[in-house]
Amino acid sequence: MSSAVRSMAPISTQVVDVSPTVVAVGPEGVVDINDTMVRLLHEILQVQRQQVELTRELLQFSRENRQRQQNELEAWQRDNQGVVERCRDVLGTLSRLHSALLGDMADYINENQELLLENDFSMSEFVDRFGPRLHHLSAMLSIFKQVSTPNSTEQGQGT
Q1: At what angle do helices 81-118 and 120-148 cross, to 10 degrees?
Q2: pTM score > 0.85 for this model?
Q3: pLDDT at 158
Q4: Which of 44, 42, 43, 24 is nearest to 33 (CA)?
């Protein structure tokens, strides 16, 4: 047995350098990869900081714009108390109209679903029949809700 082990050829080994200081040759000459990575990471960090600053500015602008709109709405509500009250009075009715239209649409879809899926004419007829009314009624409901919402000074007085 010992002669069989001795007759085997020695195993060749190869040394691989895995050190982190790998060097590459670029247009500027010899470049340390680690230095390049650090530089790129630093640039990424700078861009992210700029993005954070721009996001903060955008958020501040949005807050100021929203506050300005809220102030304008509150001023309008103060100047038009009668209109605001009338809008509040009919908001429930308008909401029920909106709900009824949605219910009618659902019924129509259930009754005509095969035609709607198979026929472009039926789909166009459906959109023509319900689309404009739904769009306009939804817009009106949204406006009435916004106008009828008590402003912050009224909410503070009511409590």
Answers
A1: 160
A2: no
A3: 47
A4: 24
